[in-house]
């Protein structure tokens, strides 16, 4: 760089010593150069890998270290993020969509008999139910299912162009009709108003 160094430092609001230290540091190789090369290699392995955030990239580096043996030291996730930021490959995660079903706050809460244990030792012991929305060319399609916690088998299914209580009732009826042994089983939901309504 040529010119009045003192003037540049005043404009940039840095000390002259700091400026010269920066120039000296530019001569040294980046200490994460080899790790950056490994990150690029991971991205090139699959077309979907370019969406990796710092957590998945850190995990991929750990796996690569285990497989390859000789591998540069893997820093913490925060440092991996800074490396990716410098390389210009940081992705902002998309905001998760709001759930379709809304909890009925006025209704009396039922006991949580599953307590987040979504496994079962035998079939038709515990099941979970939920509603999924699919956007089609003709409008919205709502699909309600009941799935067995034992093997994730679909026990009951119904579809409609709305998500009223009748959709959940039809799902339960189809499940009982196909699997009579489901009577007496625990069926867990997210306390949505659709599954808590009284239907004649």
TrEMBL record:
InterPro entries reported for this sequence: Integrase_cat-core (IPR001584), RNaseH-like_sf (IPR012337), RNaseH_sf (IPR036397), Transposase_IS3/IS150/IS904 (IPR050900)
Sequence ranges assigned to domain Integrase catalytic in this UniProt record: 122-196
GO molecular function, one term: nucleic acid binding
Gene3D superfamilies in UniProt: Ribonuclease H-like superfamily/Ribonuclease H
GO biological process, one term: DNA integration
Name assigned to this protein: Integrase catalytic domain-containing protein
Organism, scientific name: Acetivibrio mesophilus
């Amino acid at each position: 760089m040529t010119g009045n160094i003192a003037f540049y430092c005043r404009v940039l609001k840095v000390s002259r010593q700091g400026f010269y230290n920066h120039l000296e540091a530019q001569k040294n190789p980046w200490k994460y150069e080899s790790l950056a090369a490994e990150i690029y290699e991971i991205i090139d392995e699959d077309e979907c890998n370019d969406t990796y955030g710092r957590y998945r990239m850190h995990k991929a580096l750990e796996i690569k270290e285990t497989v390859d043996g000789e591998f540069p030291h893997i820093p913490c996730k925060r440092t991996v993020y800074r490396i990716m930021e410098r390389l210009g490959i940081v992705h902002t995660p998309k905001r998760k969509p709001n759930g379709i079903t809304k909890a009925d706050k006025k209704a009396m809460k039922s006991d949580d008999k599953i307590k987040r244990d979504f496994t079962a030792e035998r079939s038709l012991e515990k099941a979970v139910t939920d509603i999924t929305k699919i956007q089609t060319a003709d409008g919205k399609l709502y699909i309600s299912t009941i799935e067995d916690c034992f093997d994730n088998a679909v026990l009951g299914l119904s579809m409609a162009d709305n998500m009223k209580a009748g959709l959940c009732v039809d799902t339960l009826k189809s499940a009982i009709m196909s699997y009579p042994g489901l009577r007496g089983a625990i069926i867990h939901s997210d306390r949505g108003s659709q599954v808590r309504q009284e239907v004649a």
